[in-house]
Specification:
It contains eleven helices and twelve strands. With about 325 residues, the protein is α/β, with parallel strands linked by helices.
């Protein structure tokens, strides 16, 4: 079975690629010309160069394939050029779905995000049916993923696109080379750069479990349906306390109110604009997202896909160990 995967050089994509290889797929990986390819070293995959913003490259990459795992996305909580996020996440997703339909692809797994889901007003974990609208989406990343998923669902309903949607929560673990915003949180905690915390919460999951969930969705998922791939709901204080235990540091004791952190985020973003620097360490979108606990239920994936993620302590330990082994933590 010839399978194309996008985003294979990235954090989640490289984990999915490994699962595909282990399951016996002949894998073709679509990689941008300037991508960091460390996660692809020694993996038996055919590398093809292309970009979600280049429709012709998508047609070439899909030629001869029977299945598609569309994992690639631009995951940024801040950028000075937000149009790039929509071009990649929305237009690029629509284009590769149309290209897959034209190529006769018979099975697609699309990697969305819990960012597209609503949050329960009573604070209980949300699920796949918790209502959400575009106005509920905070920041360009969430809006772009919401619009992209809506386009995928439309194509599934109106055009019969053979796609299953997965919504990973917050993956952690090895091979976070960039690192992702969550990976930076883990790094900062391991390096003793987190003296305080805010009252928020996340659903944490091992990135390798997310990859297994992709394969389960491919094999057992219902066309047009979506499945949350997560593990454990934890407050930020609980996450930082666990990381402190793993790294031999003291957990932070000071809890900062969100309205105290928000002005610092505005100043940090303004400085990045002025200096043309990289993503600020604290972003306005990040603070606004932290005002709610992003807790989710994985009951549907467990029940219908047989999804069974490993303990979150191992996920955090694997993340810390990988950062140590690869020189991020000295």
């Amino acid at each position: 079975m010839d399978t194309l995967i996008t985003g294979a050089s990235g954090f989640v994509g490289s984990a999915v690629l490994r699962q595909l290889v282990a399951a016996g797929h002949r894998v073709r990986a679509l990689v941008r010309p300037n991508s960091d390819r460390r996660n692809l070293i020694d993996l038996p995959a055919e590398i093809v160069t292309g970009d979600l913003t280049d429709r012709r490259s998508l047609d070439r990459a899909l030629a001869g394939c029977s299945s598609l795992f569309h994992v690639a996305a631009m995951y940024r909580l801040w950028t000075s050029h937000p149009e790039e996020i929509y071009r990649t996440n929305v237009t690029g997703t629509r284009d590769i779905m149309l290209a897959a339909a034209n190529a006769g692809i018979t099975r697609i797994v699309y990697t969305s995000s819990v960012a597209t889901l609503g949050l329960a007003p009573d604070g209980n974990p949300a699920d796949e049916n918790t209502p959400a609208s575009l106005k509920d989406m905070v920041g360009h990343y969430k809006r772009s993923k919401f619009l992209a998923e809506a386009e995928v669902k439309r194509l599934a309903k109106e055009e019969g696109l053979p796609v299953v949607i997965v919504n990973p929560s917050t993956p952690v673990g090895p091979r976070d080379i960039k690192p992702t915003p969550t990976g930076r949180l883990i790094l900062d905690a391991a390096l003793g750069r987190t003296p305080a915390y805010v009252d928020t919460g996340l659903n944490i999951v091992h990135v390798d479990d997310v990859a297994v969930g992709h394969l389960l969705a491919f094999e057992r998922g219902k066309t047009g349906d979506r499945y949350i791939l997560g593990a454990q709901n934890m407050t930020l204080k609980e996450i930082l306390t666990e990381l402190a235990m793993l790294t031999g540091r003291r957990p932070p004791k000071l809890r900062l109110p969100h309205n105290l952190v928000l002005p610092f985020a505005y100043a940090s973003e303004a400085w990045s604009h002025l200096t043309h620097g990289g993503e600020p360490r604290v972003t306005v979108t990040g603070v606004r997202l932290a005002m709610k606990r992003m807790f989710f239920s994985t009951d549907k994936a467990r029940r219908l896909l047989g999804f069974n993620p490993q303990p979150i302590e191992k996920a955090l330990r694997d993340a810390v160990d990988w950062f140590k082994d690869n020189g991020y933590i000295h």
